Amino acid sequence: MKALACCLVIFLSVSVVLIYGDSRQWGRRVSGDRLLDYAVVVNNSLPVPEKSSIYRYLPAAGAYRPPNITAIFTRDNVPGGKGGFAGIVSGGVNQSNVTLKLTSKPYQRFNFTIEIYGK
Ligand SMILES: *[C@@H]1O[C@H](CO)[C@@H](O)[C@H](O)[C@H]1NC(C)=O
Ligand SMILES: *[C@@H]1O[C@H](CO)[C@@H](O)[C@H](O)[C@H]1NC(C)=O
Ligand SMILES: *[C@@H]1O[C@H](CO)[C@@H](O)[C@H](O)[C@H]1NC(C)=O
Ligand SMILES: *[C@@H]1O[C@H](CO)[C@@H](O)[C@H](O)[C@H]1NC(C)=O
Ligand SMILES: *[C@@H]1O[C@H](CO)[C@@H](O)[C@H](O)[C@H]1NC(C)=O
């Protein structure tokens, strides 16, 4: 009985990981921040083993005081753990801009939702 319960727990934990894929967060929301940028980045190009995209957020040109980034979310929309990896190349939390690199697992597509908050 104990062994069965143990197996069940392991099974459920693995399922959660598989369902949610690789989503990451940097920083955290603070009161008074707002959505600066929202994007869905997809790469479906099939013949390429490893797909990648660079996503760059820059403040509007000529902004008097560019907002400071408080939080960055990358949510993997591909179920089953077949999505990709997200990483920060430059910029980020407490800066005015960020460059993200999205990479697929070999021979998989990716579909990321990106949300950037700042104030
Ligand atoms: C998809 O990934 C390939 C390989 O990295 C790249 O050449 C192509 O430009 C990417 N397409 C998009 C829409 O980012
Ligand atoms: C990407 O994922 C979003 C959210 O699940 C979905 O609405 C959208 O259709 C997907 N885009 C592609 C090209 O698969
Ligand atoms: C950003 O700034 C806040 C407030 O100064 C600080 O608490 C936080 O650790 C900083 N985060 C990073 C990633 O630099
Ligand atoms: C962003 O916040 C950090 C920590 O509070 C501060 O040091 C930095 O000067 C701010 N940057 C901008 C562009 O406002
Ligand atoms: C991004 O912000 C940093 C300071 O936060 C600045 O030094 C850098 O020039 C900015 N990069 C771009 C491409 O605007």
UniProtKB/TrEMBL annotation:
Span of the signal peptide: 1-21
Tree of life domain: Eukaryota
InterPro entries the UniProt entry points to: MBF2 (IPR031734)
TM stretches of this protein: none
One Pfam family, short name: MBF2
Keyword annotations: Signal
PANTHER family for this protein: GEO11136P1-RELATED (PTHR37685)
Name of protein: Salivary secreted peptide
